[in-house]
Design goal:
Blueprint (H helix, E strand, L loop, with lengths): L6 H9 L1 H14 L1 H4 L5 E2 H8 L3 H13 L3 E4 L3 E4 L1 H4 L10 H8 L1 H7 L2 H7 L4 H5 L3 H6 L2 H25 L7 E5 L5 H9 L4 E6 L1 H4 L3 H7 L5 E5 L12 E5 L7 H14 L5 E6 L9 H14 L6 H10 L2 E9 L2 E8 L1
Helix pairs in contact: 2-5, 2-7, 4-5, 7-12, 12-13
Length: 336
C-alpha cells in the first residue's frame, strides 16, 4: 500500500483488510471462478450457476474486481483474471479451499480472540468453539473436507520447491511422519528412483494413500502405517521427514514428537523438518501472520533458526543446516 497515504487512511485500510479476505473467501465458496472459467459472463448468468442473488452477487464481484480477482466489463459482464484463476477448483495452483477455510467460523471466529491469546500466551480455539481444533475438525465432516483439501492445496505449492532444493540422493528409506495422504512422500520417491518410503499418520488418513502412490507411480516403493507420533514412530528409516508438523505445537509437545524420532534414528540418520523459518534480518509478514494463526488455533508457532536449534537440542538432536526451498525450508538435523 502506498506509504504516501495519510496515517488514518492507511490504518483504515489495514483495519478493514479482514473484509477483503472475507470477500475472497465468499467468492471461493460460491465457485465464481469456476463459473467464469470458460469466458466472460453476465452477473445474471454467474448467479444462476452458483445459486446466488444476482444484484447482491454484483456487489461482491465489483469489490473483487477492485482487488483484481475479476475484471468488470460493460453491462455487468465479468471475466476471470490470472489471479482469480487460482480460485478455480481444477487449477494446478488452486487455493480455492484454502480461501474457503479462512472464511469458516473455525478459522475466522478464532482470530477475533487474538488479543486474549496475546494476554495469556495460550490458544483460544477451545474457548471460542468448546473443543480443540483437531477434535472440531475431526467431528465435522463438512469442515474436515474443506480443511483436508486446503492443506493438500497449500502442500502442493511447496512440494516442487522442496524436492528440487534438497538432495535426497543416497538415502535408502525415508519415513514421512505425519505425512497425510502421501503427496510429498510420493513426489520425493518419484524424483529418487532408488528410495523407498514409509508414510506414517493416523490410520484413517493413511488409508487413503493408495491412489496417491499409484498416481505418482511409486506404489511398489511406498508403504503406509497408521499410528500417533506422540506414541512412537516406525523404525527402519535412515531419514525422517516432518513437513509442517512441528509448527502445530509449542515447545514441550514438539520435543516429545522429536524425541520419538530420536529414539529410532540410526547413528548416521537425518531428521528433516519442512517449515517456514522465521527470518531475523528481513520482513516476512506471511510467516509472522502464520505464527499468529498457529498461536490462536493450537498453541503452535513458527521458529527462527536459533529457536529450531534449541528445540532440536532438547530432543537430543543437532541442527546441521537449513536448506532454503521457497516459502518453506528444510531444517536438517542429526543425532547430537
Amino acid at each position: 500500500m502506498p506509504a504516501s497515504l495519510p496515517p488514518p487512511v492507511r490504518i483504515l485500510q489495514l483495519a478493514t483488510a479482514g473484509w477483503m479476505a472475507q470477500a475472497v473467501s465468499a467468492a471461493a465458496e460460491l465457485g465464481v471462478s469456476d463459473a467464469l472459467a470458460a469466458g466472460p459472463r453476465t452477473v445474471e448468468e454467474v448467479a444462476e450457476e452458483v445459486g446466488a442473488h444476482a444484484p447482491t452477487l454484483y456487489r461482491l464481484l465489483r469489490a473483487c474486481a477492485d482487488i483484481e480477482l475479476f475484471e468488470e466489463r460493460p453491462d455487468r459482464v465479468f471475466s476471470l483474471t490470472e489471479l482469480g484463476d487460482a480460485l478455480r477448483t481444477d487449477s494446478p495452483v488452486s487455493l480455492r479451499d484454502f480461501a474457503v477455510w479462512t472464511g469458516l467460523p473455525a478459522e475466522r471466529d478464532t482470530w477475533t480472540r487474538l488479543a486474549d491469546s496475546v494476554r495469556t500466551g495460550a490458544p483460544v480455539f477451545e474457548r471460542v468453539h468448546g473443543t480443540s481444533v483437531w477434535d472440531h475438525i475431526r467431528d465435522r465432516p463438512d469442515v474436515l473436507g474443506v480443511f483436508d483439501r486446503a492443506m493438500t492445496q497449500t502442500s502442493r505449492q511447496i512440494i516442487g520447491s522442496i524436492v528440487a532444493a534438497y538432495d535426497f540422493g543416497g538415502l535408502r528409506t525415508l519415513v514421512d511422519v505425519g505425512g497425510g495422504r502421501g503427496a510429498l512422500l510420493s513426489a520425493v520417491l518419484a524424483a529418487n528412483p532408488g528410495l523407498r518410503g514409509v508414510l506414517y499418520d493416523q490410520p484413517e488418513v493413511v488409508a487413503e494413500s493408495g491412489p496417491v502412490f499409484k498416481e505418482a507411480g511409486v506404489a511398489e516403493r511406498a508403504t503406509a502405517q497408521g499410528g500417533s507420533f506422540f506414541d512412537a514412530v516406525p523404525p527402519g528409516g535412515d531419514a525422517y521427514l516432518l513437513s509442517n508438523i512441528i509448527h502445530d505445537w509449542d515447545d514441550e509437545p514438539s520435543v516429545r514428537i522429536l524425541s520419538k524420532v530420536r529414539a529410532v534414528l540410526p547413528a548416521d540418520g537425518r531428521v528433516l523438518l519442512v517449515e517456514a523459518v522465521l527470518p531475523t534480518d528481513r520482513p516476512a509478514l506471511n510467516v509472522k501472520l502464520m505464527d499468529l494463526d498457529m498461536l490462536v488455533l493450537c498453541g503452535g508457532r513458527q521458529r527462527t533458526e536459533a529457536e529450531f536449534a534449541a528445540l532440536l537440542a532438547g530432543a537430543g538432536l543437532r541442527l546441521t543446516r537449513i536448506v532454503p526451498g521457497g516459502h518453506c525450508s528444510v531444517v536438517e538435523a542429526v543425532a547430537a
